[in-house]
Protein backbone atom coordinates (compact mmCIF):
# COMPACT_ATOMS: atom_id res chain seq x y z
CA UNK A 1 0.00 0.00 0.00
CA UNK A 2 1.38 3.39 -0.96
CA UNK A 3 2.32 5.43 2.10
CA UNK A 4 1.49 8.65 0.20
CA UNK A 5 -2.11 8.18 1.29
CA UNK A 6 -1.36 8.76 4.93
CA UNK A 7 1.00 11.64 4.20
CA UNK A 8 -1.87 13.42 2.40
CA UNK A 9 -4.24 12.94 5.32
CA UNK A 10 -2.91 14.93 8.30
CA UNK A 11 -4.76 15.01 11.58
CA UNK A 12 -6.88 18.10 12.08
CA UNK A 13 -4.59 19.48 14.78
CA UNK A 14 -1.37 19.15 12.76
CA UNK A 15 -1.25 22.84 11.92
CA UNK A 16 -1.92 24.21 15.41
CA UNK A 17 0.51 26.92 16.38
CA UNK A 18 1.44 27.93 12.84
CA UNK A 19 -0.64 31.11 12.89
CA UNK A 20 -1.40 30.97 9.14
CA UNK A 21 -2.20 28.11 6.84
CA UNK A 22 0.46 26.89 4.44
CA UNK A 23 -0.38 25.79 0.89
CA UNK A 24 -0.67 22.03 0.53
CA UNK A 25 1.99 20.18 -1.49
CA UNK A 26 1.27 19.13 -5.09
CA UNK A 27 -0.93 16.07 -5.46
CA UNK A 28 0.49 12.74 -6.62
CA UNK A 29 -1.83 11.11 -9.16
CA UNK A 30 -2.38 7.36 -9.51
CA UNK A 31 -1.33 5.29 -12.50
CA UNK A 32 -3.78 3.21 -14.54
CA UNK A 33 -2.50 0.14 -12.73
CA UNK A 34 -3.33 1.77 -9.38
CA UNK A 35 -6.79 2.67 -10.67
CA UNK A 36 -7.33 -0.99 -11.59
CA UNK A 37 -6.15 -2.14 -8.17
CA UNK A 38 -8.54 0.35 -6.61
CA UNK A 39 -11.42 -1.06 -8.66
CA UNK A 40 -10.63 -4.53 -7.35
CA UNK A 41 -10.37 -3.26 -3.77
CA UNK A 42 -13.75 -1.49 -3.78
CA UNK A 43 -15.63 -4.22 -5.67
CA UNK A 44 -18.76 -5.01 -3.71
CA UNK A 45 -18.63 -1.66 -1.91
CA UNK A 46 -19.90 0.28 -4.92
CA UNK A 47 -22.08 -0.42 -7.94
CA UNK A 48 -21.02 -0.84 -11.53
CA UNK A 49 -23.55 1.68 -12.81
CA UNK A 50 -25.56 1.60 -16.01
CA UNK A 51 -24.70 3.19 -19.34
CA UNK A 52 -27.66 4.60 -21.27
CA UNK A 53 -27.89 5.75 -24.86
CA UNK A 54 -29.77 9.04 -24.80
CA UNK A 55 -33.36 8.63 -25.98
CA UNK A 56 -32.92 5.11 -27.35
CA UNK A 57 -31.89 2.03 -25.36
CA UNK A 58 -29.75 0.71 -22.55
CA UNK A 59 -26.44 -0.95 -23.43
CA UNK A 60 -23.93 -2.96 -21.36
CA UNK A 61 -24.21 -2.54 -17.58
CA UNK A 62 -23.06 -4.25 -14.43
CA UNK A 63 -25.79 -4.29 -11.80
CA UNK A 64 -29.01 -3.87 -13.78
CA UNK A 65 -30.96 -5.29 -16.70
CA UNK A 66 -30.25 -4.51 -20.33
CA UNK A 67 -33.40 -3.61 -22.22
CA UNK A 68 -34.92 -1.14 -24.63
CA UNK A 69 -36.08 2.10 -23.06
CA UNK A 70 -39.78 1.94 -22.32
CA UNK A 71 -39.87 -1.87 -22.37
CA UNK A 72 -38.83 -3.48 -19.10
CA UNK A 73 -40.65 -6.79 -19.39
CA UNK A 74 -38.69 -9.88 -18.42
CA UNK A 75 -39.04 -11.22 -21.94
CA UNK A 76 -37.20 -8.31 -23.49
CA UNK A 77 -34.57 -7.74 -20.80
CA UNK A 78 -31.51 -9.76 -19.93
CA UNK A 79 -29.41 -9.54 -16.81
CA UNK A 80 -25.67 -9.23 -17.12
CA UNK A 81 -22.84 -9.79 -14.73
CA UNK A 82 -20.24 -8.58 -17.17
CA UNK A 83 -19.77 -5.77 -19.62
CA UNK A 84 -20.93 -5.75 -23.20
CA UNK A 85 -20.26 -3.63 -26.23
CA UNK A 86 -22.46 -1.27 -28.18
CA UNK A 87 -22.75 -3.95 -30.88
CA UNK A 88 -24.68 -6.27 -28.51
CA UNK A 89 -27.97 -4.81 -29.72
CA UNK A 90 -29.08 -3.43 -33.04
CA UNK A 91 -28.60 0.22 -32.15
CA UNK A 92 -30.21 2.90 -34.27
CA UNK A 93 -27.91 5.34 -36.05
CA UNK A 94 -26.68 8.46 -34.21
CA UNK A 95 -29.38 11.08 -33.96
CA UNK A 96 -29.18 14.76 -34.60
CA UNK A 97 -29.06 16.88 -31.46
CA UNK A 98 -32.64 17.21 -30.11
CA UNK A 99 -34.16 20.41 -31.48
CA UNK A 100 -36.00 21.00 -28.22
CA UNK A 101 -32.67 21.54 -26.51
CA UNK A 102 -30.28 22.88 -29.12
CA UNK A 103 -32.81 25.39 -30.44
CA UNK A 104 -33.91 26.54 -27.01
CA UNK A 105 -33.61 30.30 -26.47
CA UNK A 106 -31.91 29.54 -23.14
CA UNK A 107 -28.95 27.91 -24.90
CA UNK A 108 -26.28 30.60 -25.28
CA UNK A 109 -23.80 28.43 -27.19
CA UNK A 110 -24.51 27.63 -30.83
CA UNK A 111 -24.41 23.85 -31.47
CA UNK A 112 -21.91 22.38 -33.89
CA UNK A 113 -23.10 20.79 -37.08
CA UNK A 114 -23.12 17.05 -37.60
CA UNK A 115 -24.27 14.01 -35.65
CA UNK A 116 -23.75 13.45 -31.96
CA UNK A 117 -24.33 10.07 -30.36
CA UNK A 118 -24.84 10.73 -26.64
CA UNK A 119 -24.44 8.15 -23.88
CA UNK A 120 -24.98 8.64 -20.16
CA UNK A 121 -23.01 7.01 -17.35
CA UNK A 122 -25.58 6.94 -14.54
CA UNK A 123 -23.60 7.50 -11.36
CA UNK A 124 -26.74 8.97 -9.84
CA UNK A 125 -27.68 5.30 -9.29
CA UNK A 126 -24.58 4.79 -7.16
CA UNK A 127 -24.75 4.32 -3.39
CA UNK A 128 -25.70 7.66 -1.78
CA UNK A 129 -26.67 8.80 -5.32
CA UNK A 130 -23.15 10.03 -6.07
CA UNK A 131 -20.03 8.88 -7.88
CA UNK A 132 -18.13 10.04 -4.79
CA UNK A 133 -19.05 6.71 -3.19
CA UNK A 134 -16.11 5.31 -5.17
CA UNK A 135 -13.59 7.79 -3.78
CA UNK A 136 -14.86 7.34 -0.22
CA UNK A 137 -14.67 3.55 -0.45
CA UNK A 138 -11.22 3.74 -2.03
CA UNK A 139 -9.79 6.04 0.62
CA UNK A 140 -11.13 4.32 3.72
CA UNK A 141 -10.48 0.78 2.47
CA UNK A 142 -6.88 1.71 1.67
CA UNK A 143 -6.48 3.40 5.03
CA UNK A 144 -7.86 0.42 6.93
CA UNK A 145 -5.82 -2.05 4.90
CA UNK A 146 -2.65 -0.08 5.64
CA UNK A 147 -2.99 -1.23 9.25
CA UNK A 148 -2.45 2.26 10.63
CA UNK A 149 -5.29 2.27 13.15
CA UNK A 150 -3.62 5.16 14.98
CA UNK A 151 -4.36 7.49 12.06
CA UNK A 152 -8.13 7.09 12.41
CA UNK A 153 -8.57 6.37 16.11
CA UNK A 154 -10.20 9.79 16.57
CA UNK A 155 -12.20 9.57 13.35
CA UNK A 156 -12.09 11.26 9.96
CA UNK A 157 -13.07 14.76 8.83
CA UNK A 158 -13.70 16.14 5.34
CA UNK A 159 -14.55 19.50 3.75
CA UNK A 160 -17.36 18.86 1.27
CA UNK A 161 -20.32 20.47 -0.46
CA UNK A 162 -22.25 17.46 0.78
CA UNK A 163 -21.94 14.51 -1.60
CA UNK A 164 -18.48 13.30 -0.60
CA UNK A 165 -19.27 13.94 3.06
CA UNK A 166 -22.38 11.80 2.77
CA UNK A 167 -20.49 9.00 1.00
CA UNK A 168 -17.56 9.09 3.44
CA UNK A 169 -19.95 8.96 6.40
CA UNK A 170 -21.65 5.88 4.98
CA UNK A 171 -18.32 4.09 4.55
CA UNK A 172 -17.10 5.22 7.98
CA UNK A 173 -20.27 4.04 9.70
CA UNK A 174 -19.85 0.57 8.24
CA UNK A 175 -16.36 0.48 9.77
CA UNK A 176 -17.36 2.03 13.12
CA UNK A 177 -15.23 5.09 12.40
CA UNK A 178 -16.35 8.49 13.66
CA UNK A 179 -16.96 10.99 10.84
CA UNK A 180 -17.18 14.80 10.79
CA UNK A 181 -18.23 16.83 7.75
CA UNK A 182 -17.47 20.52 7.14
CA UNK A 183 -19.77 22.32 4.70
CA UNK A 184 -20.07 25.94 3.51
CA UNK A 185 -22.76 27.99 5.21
CA UNK A 186 -24.94 28.32 2.11
CA UNK A 187 -25.46 24.55 1.87
CA UNK A 188 -29.16 24.00 1.17
CA UNK A 189 -31.42 22.30 3.76
CA UNK A 190 -31.93 19.21 1.62
CA UNK A 191 -28.20 18.43 1.51
CA UNK A 192 -27.90 19.13 5.22
CA UNK A 193 -30.65 16.57 5.85
CA UNK A 194 -28.45 13.93 4.19
CA UNK A 195 -25.66 14.64 6.66
CA UNK A 196 -27.38 13.31 9.76
CA UNK A 197 -26.17 11.05 12.61
CA UNK A 198 -28.49 8.33 11.30
CA UNK A 199 -26.51 8.35 8.06
CA UNK A 200 -23.12 8.26 9.79
CA UNK A 201 -22.29 11.95 10.31
CA UNK A 202 -21.27 12.29 13.95
CA UNK A 203 -20.36 15.96 13.69
CA UNK A 204 -21.59 18.53 11.14
CA UNK A 205 -19.89 21.94 11.03
CA UNK A 206 -21.02 24.84 8.84
CA UNK A 207 -18.36 27.46 8.09
CA UNK A 208 -18.20 30.67 6.10
CA UNK A 209 -17.32 29.96 2.47
CA UNK A 210 -13.78 31.27 3.00
CA UNK A 211 -13.05 29.15 6.06
CA UNK A 212 -14.45 26.15 4.22
CA UNK A 213 -12.31 26.92 1.17
CA UNK A 214 -9.24 27.22 3.42
CA UNK A 215 -9.85 23.64 4.51
CA UNK A 216 -10.29 22.43 0.92
CA UNK A 217 -7.20 24.20 -0.40
CA UNK A 218 -4.81 23.37 2.44
CA UNK A 219 -6.24 19.90 3.13
CA UNK A 220 -6.54 20.71 6.83
CA UNK A 221 -8.87 22.39 9.29
CA UNK A 222 -8.04 26.10 9.89
CA UNK A 223 -6.56 26.77 13.33
CA UNK A 224 -9.26 29.15 14.51
CA UNK A 225 -11.90 26.62 13.49
CA UNK A 226 -10.24 24.00 15.70
CA UNK A 227 -10.43 26.44 18.59
CA UNK A 228 -14.13 26.97 17.95
CA UNK A 229 -14.77 23.26 17.32
CA UNK A 230 -12.43 21.24 19.55
CA UNK A 231 -14.32 18.07 18.63
CA UNK A 232 -12.40 18.14 15.33
CA UNK A 233 -8.96 18.10 16.96
CA UNK A 234 -7.05 14.90 16.23
CA UNK A 235 -9.34 13.73 13.43
CA UNK A 236 -7.76 12.45 10.22
CA UNK A 237 -8.40 14.91 7.35
CA UNK A 238 -9.55 13.23 4.13
CA UNK A 239 -8.61 15.25 1.05
CA UNK A 240 -10.82 14.66 -1.99
CA UNK A 241 -7.78 15.30 -4.16
CA UNK A 242 -5.73 12.55 -2.50
CA UNK A 243 -4.23 9.81 -4.63
CA UNK A 244 -6.69 7.18 -3.44
CA UNK A 245 -9.72 9.42 -3.97
CA UNK A 246 -8.60 10.27 -7.51
CA UNK A 247 -8.16 6.54 -8.18
CA UNK A 248 -11.70 5.89 -6.98
CA UNK A 249 -13.08 8.65 -9.21
CA UNK A 250 -11.14 7.29 -12.17
CA UNK A 251 -12.83 3.88 -12.01
CA UNK A 252 -15.91 5.55 -13.55
CA UNK A 253 -14.11 6.22 -16.84
CA UNK A 254 -12.38 2.85 -16.80
CA UNK A 255 -15.83 1.24 -16.75
CA UNK A 256 -17.01 3.51 -19.59
CA UNK A 257 -14.14 2.40 -21.81
CA UNK A 258 -14.85 -1.24 -20.93
CA UNK A 259 -18.45 -0.77 -22.04
CA UNK A 260 -18.10 1.34 -25.17
CA UNK A 261 -14.50 1.08 -26.30
CA UNK A 262 -14.24 3.60 -29.12
CA UNK A 263 -15.30 6.99 -27.73
CA UNK A 264 -14.69 10.46 -29.10
CA UNK A 265 -15.38 12.54 -25.98
CA UNK A 266 -16.13 12.05 -22.30
CA UNK A 267 -17.70 15.05 -20.55
CA UNK A 268 -17.26 15.48 -16.79
CA UNK A 269 -18.10 18.27 -14.34
CA UNK A 270 -15.14 20.24 -12.98
CA UNK A 271 -15.27 20.70 -9.22
CA UNK A 272 -11.97 20.45 -7.37
CA UNK A 273 -10.40 18.81 -10.42
CA UNK A 274 -9.87 15.30 -9.06
CA UNK A 275 -12.44 13.63 -11.31
CA UNK A 276 -11.15 15.46 -14.38
CA UNK A 277 -7.59 14.36 -13.57
CA UNK A 278 -8.59 10.77 -12.90
CA UNK A 279 -10.56 10.66 -16.14
CA UNK A 280 -7.58 12.01 -18.06
CA UNK A 281 -5.22 9.44 -16.57
CA UNK A 282 -7.40 6.56 -17.77
CA UNK A 283 -8.04 7.82 -21.31
CA UNK A 284 -4.40 8.83 -21.78
CA UNK A 285 -3.35 5.26 -21.00
CA UNK A 286 -6.20 3.40 -22.70
CA UNK A 287 -7.64 5.61 -25.45
CA UNK A 288 -5.39 8.59 -26.27
CA UNK A 289 -7.68 9.90 -29.00
CA UNK A 290 -10.58 10.26 -26.55
CA UNK A 291 -11.04 13.83 -25.35
CA UNK A 292 -11.91 14.82 -21.78
CA UNK A 293 -14.03 17.97 -21.64
CA UNK A 294 -14.37 19.58 -18.21
CA UNK A 295 -17.61 21.49 -17.57
CA UNK A 296 -18.24 24.43 -15.28
CA UNK A 297 -21.33 26.51 -14.66
CA UNK A 298 -21.26 30.21 -15.56
CA UNK A 299 -21.79 31.27 -11.95
CA UNK A 300 -18.36 29.87 -10.99
CA UNK A 301 -15.57 29.22 -13.53
CA UNK A 302 -12.24 28.75 -11.71
CA UNK A 303 -10.81 26.30 -14.26
CA UNK A 304 -11.57 28.48 -17.29
CA UNK A 305 -10.17 31.50 -15.44
CA UNK A 306 -6.96 29.61 -14.71
CA UNK A 307 -6.62 28.58 -18.35
CA UNK A 308 -7.06 32.21 -19.41
CA UNK A 309 -4.56 33.54 -16.87
CA UNK A 310 -2.11 30.66 -17.27
CA UNK A 311 -2.28 29.92 -13.54
CA UNK A 312 -4.88 29.56 -10.78
CA UNK A 313 -6.73 32.84 -10.77
CA UNK A 314 -9.46 34.15 -8.52
CA UNK A 315 -13.02 34.32 -9.77
CA UNK A 316 -16.38 35.37 -8.41
CA UNK A 317 -18.29 32.47 -6.90
CA UNK A 318 -22.06 32.74 -6.92
CA UNK A 319 -24.05 30.09 -5.02
CA UNK A 320 -26.65 28.33 -7.16
CA UNK A 321 -28.56 25.07 -7.40
CA UNK A 322 -25.44 23.70 -9.14
CA UNK A 323 -23.63 23.64 -5.81
CA UNK A 324 -21.30 20.68 -6.35
CA UNK A 325 -18.86 22.39 -8.72
CA UNK A 326 -16.98 25.69 -8.76
CA UNK A 327 -14.94 27.56 -6.17
CA UNK A 328 -12.65 30.52 -5.63
CA UNK A 329 -9.94 29.26 -7.94
CA UNK A 330 -8.53 26.12 -9.53
CA UNK A 331 -6.67 24.28 -6.77
CA UNK A 332 -2.93 25.02 -7.04
CA UNK A 333 -2.20 21.47 -5.85
CA UNK A 334 -3.72 20.10 -9.07
CA UNK A 335 -2.87 22.86 -11.52
CA UNK A 336 0.22 21.23 -13.01
CA UNK A 337 -1.88 18.16 -13.79
CA UNK A 338 -4.98 19.85 -15.21
CA UNK A 339 -3.46 22.64 -17.31
CA UNK A 340 -3.76 22.16 -21.06
CA UNK A 341 -0.09 21.41 -21.68
CA UNK A 342 -0.32 18.25 -19.57
CA UNK A 343 -2.86 16.68 -21.90
CA UNK A 344 -5.19 15.20 -19.28
CA UNK A 345 -8.04 17.59 -20.10
CA UNK A 346 -8.64 18.49 -23.76
CA UNK A 347 -11.09 21.35 -23.40
CA UNK A 348 -13.17 23.48 -21.06
CA UNK A 349 -16.91 24.08 -21.41
CA UNK A 350 -19.18 26.54 -19.65
CA UNK A 351 -22.95 26.20 -19.37
CA UNK A 352 -25.48 28.56 -17.82
CA UNK A 353 -28.17 27.72 -15.27
CA UNK A 354 -30.93 27.63 -17.89
CA UNK A 355 -29.02 25.03 -19.89
CA UNK A 356 -28.49 22.88 -16.80
CA UNK A 357 -32.18 23.10 -15.88
CA UNK A 358 -33.13 22.08 -19.44
CA UNK A 359 -30.78 19.07 -19.22
CA UNK A 360 -32.35 18.05 -15.91
CA UNK A 361 -35.78 18.13 -17.55
CA UNK A 362 -34.57 16.10 -20.52
CA UNK A 363 -33.01 13.43 -18.30
CA UNK A 364 -36.16 13.07 -16.21
CA UNK A 365 -38.52 13.09 -19.19
CA UNK A 366 -36.55 10.73 -21.44
CA UNK A 367 -35.15 8.28 -18.91
CA UNK A 368 -36.71 8.93 -15.52
CA UNK A 369 -33.24 9.97 -14.38
CA UNK A 370 -33.05 12.40 -11.47
CA UNK A 371 -29.83 14.39 -11.76
CA UNK A 372 -28.49 17.12 -9.53
CA UNK A 373 -27.13 20.28 -11.13
CA UNK A 374 -23.53 19.11 -11.51
CA UNK A 375 -24.74 15.74 -12.78
CA UNK A 376 -26.73 17.37 -15.59
CA UNK A 377 -24.02 19.88 -16.56
CA UNK A 378 -22.11 17.45 -18.85
CA UNK A 379 -25.27 16.74 -20.88
CA UNK A 380 -25.98 20.48 -21.04
CA UNK A 381 -22.50 21.00 -22.49
CA UNK A 382 -22.91 18.21 -25.04
CA UNK A 383 -26.30 19.47 -26.20
CA UNK A 384 -24.95 23.01 -26.58
CA UNK A 385 -22.29 21.73 -28.99
CA UNK A 386 -19.30 22.15 -26.68
CA UNK A 387 -18.39 18.45 -26.72
CA UNK A 388 -18.17 18.23 -30.49
CA UNK A 389 -19.66 15.40 -32.53
CA UNK A 390 -19.35 11.62 -32.66
CA UNK A 391 -19.74 9.28 -29.70
CA UNK A 392 -19.98 11.41 -26.56
CA UNK A 393 -20.37 10.09 -23.02
CA UNK A 394 -21.75 12.40 -20.33
CA UNK A 395 -21.19 11.36 -16.72
CA UNK A 396 -24.26 11.98 -14.57
CA UNK A 397 -22.25 12.27 -11.38
CA UNK A 398 -25.10 12.47 -8.87
CA UNK A 399 -28.81 12.65 -8.18
CA UNK A 400 -29.13 14.39 -4.82
CA UNK A 401 -31.74 16.97 -5.80
CA UNK A 402 -34.23 18.68 -3.51
CA UNK A 403 -37.71 17.46 -4.49
CA UNK A 404 -39.35 20.89 -4.39
CA UNK A 405 -36.56 22.35 -6.53
CA UNK A 406 -36.88 19.43 -8.93
CA UNK A 407 -40.62 20.10 -9.20
CA UNK A 408 -39.99 23.75 -10.05
CA UNK A 409 -37.48 22.79 -12.73
CA UNK A 410 -39.86 20.25 -14.28
CA UNK A 411 -42.49 23.00 -14.50
CA UNK A 412 -40.06 25.04 -16.60
CA UNK A 413 -38.41 27.24 -13.96
CA UNK A 414 -34.71 27.81 -13.37
CA UNK A 415 -33.87 28.31 -9.67
CA UNK A 416 -32.29 31.72 -9.17
CA UNK A 417 -28.67 32.05 -8.17
CA UNK A 418 -27.73 33.64 -4.87
CA UNK A 419 -25.65 36.76 -4.40
CA UNK A 420 -22.01 36.71 -5.57
CA UNK A 421 -19.55 36.09 -2.75
CA UNK A 422 -16.98 38.93 -2.50
CA UNK A 423 -13.37 38.06 -3.17
CA UNK A 424 -10.53 38.42 -0.67
CA UNK A 425 -7.00 38.26 -2.06
CA UNK A 426 -5.69 36.92 1.25
CA UNK A 427 -7.14 33.52 0.41
CA UNK A 428 -5.39 33.46 -2.93
CA UNK A 429 -2.02 34.93 -2.02
CA UNK A 430 -0.25 33.68 1.09
CA UNK A 431 1.96 36.79 1.14
CA UNK A 432 -1.01 38.92 2.16
CA UNK A 433 -2.54 39.10 5.65
CA UNK A 434 -5.54 36.93 6.45
CA UNK A 435 -9.07 38.27 6.26
CA UNK A 436 -10.42 39.99 9.36
CA UNK A 437 -13.23 38.45 11.37
CA UNK A 438 -15.44 41.30 10.17
CA UNK A 439 -14.70 40.41 6.55
CA UNK A 440 -15.35 36.73 7.17
CA UNK A 441 -18.64 37.57 8.86
CA UNK A 442 -19.53 39.69 5.84
CA UNK A 443 -18.85 36.79 3.49
CA UNK A 444 -21.12 34.57 5.55
CA UNK A 445 -23.90 37.14 5.48
CA UNK A 446 -23.57 37.56 1.73
CA UNK A 447 -23.79 33.80 1.20
CA UNK A 448 -26.70 33.55 3.61
CA UNK A 449 -28.54 36.34 1.81
CA UNK A 450 -28.24 34.36 -1.41
CA UNK A 451 -29.92 31.33 0.13
CA UNK A 452 -32.58 33.48 1.80
CA UNK A 453 -33.29 35.07 -1.56
CA UNK A 454 -33.59 31.63 -3.18
CA UNK A 455 -35.91 30.36 -0.42
CA UNK A 456 -38.09 33.43 -0.78
CA UNK A 457 -38.31 32.85 -4.51
CA UNK A 458 -39.26 29.20 -3.99
CA UNK A 459 -41.93 30.32 -1.55
CA UNK A 460 -43.43 32.64 -4.14
CA UNK A 461 -43.64 29.79 -6.62
Short overview:
The chain is an alpha/beta fold. Helices cover 37% and strands 12% of the residues.
Textual characterization of the structure:
By secondary structure, the protein is α/β, with parallel strands linked by helices. The protein is 37% helix and 12% strand. The chain has 16 helices and 12 strands. The protein has helices at 4-7, 32-41, 99-102, 132-145, 163-174, 189-193, 209-218, 223-228, 243-260, 274-286, 302-309, 332-338, 353-367, 373-383, 403-410, 437-460; strands at 51-53, 65-66, 78-79, 116-122, 156-159, 179-184, 203-207, 236-237, 265-269, 291-297, 347-351, 390-396. Strands 1-4-12-9-10-11 form a 6-stranded mixed beta sheet, sandwiched between helices. Strands 7-6-5-8 form a 4-stranded parallel beta sheet, sandwiched between helices. Strand 6 (179-184), helix 6 and strand 7 form a beta-alpha-beta unit. Helix 2 packs across helix 9 and helix 4 runs parallel beside helix 5 (163-174). The relative contact order is 0.15. The model is unreliable at 1-8, 13-22, 57-113 and 425-461 (pLDDT under 50).
Which class do the helix and strand fractions yield? Answer: alpha/beta
Count of individual helical segments = 16
Quaternary state of this entry equals single chain
Mean of all residue-level pLDDT scores: 78
| First-residue to last-residue Cα separation | 53 Å
Low-confidence stretches: 1-8, 13-22, 57-113, 425-461
Envelope shape: globular
Give the biggest sheet.
6 strands, mixed
Q: Give the proportion of residues in helices.
A: 25-40%
Strand content: 5-15%
The SSE order reads HHEEEHEHEHEHEHHEHEHEHHEHHEHH
Number of E-state strands: 12
Spatial sequence of strands, sheet with the most strands = 1-4-12-9-10-11
Cα Rg: 21 Å
Amino acid sequence: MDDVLLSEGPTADSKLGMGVLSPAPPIQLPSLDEVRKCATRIEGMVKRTRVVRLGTHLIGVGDGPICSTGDTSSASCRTTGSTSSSEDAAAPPPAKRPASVSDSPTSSNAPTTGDIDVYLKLENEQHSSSFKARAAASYLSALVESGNEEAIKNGVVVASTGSFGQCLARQAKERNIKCAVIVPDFTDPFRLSLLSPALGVDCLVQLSFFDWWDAVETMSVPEHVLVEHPELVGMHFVAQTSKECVAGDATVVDEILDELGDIDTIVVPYGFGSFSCGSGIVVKARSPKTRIVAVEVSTSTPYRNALTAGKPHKCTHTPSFVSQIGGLQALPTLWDQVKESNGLIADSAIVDLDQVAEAIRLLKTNHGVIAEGAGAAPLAAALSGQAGTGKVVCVVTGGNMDTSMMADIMLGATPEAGMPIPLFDDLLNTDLPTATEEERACSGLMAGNGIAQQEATNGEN
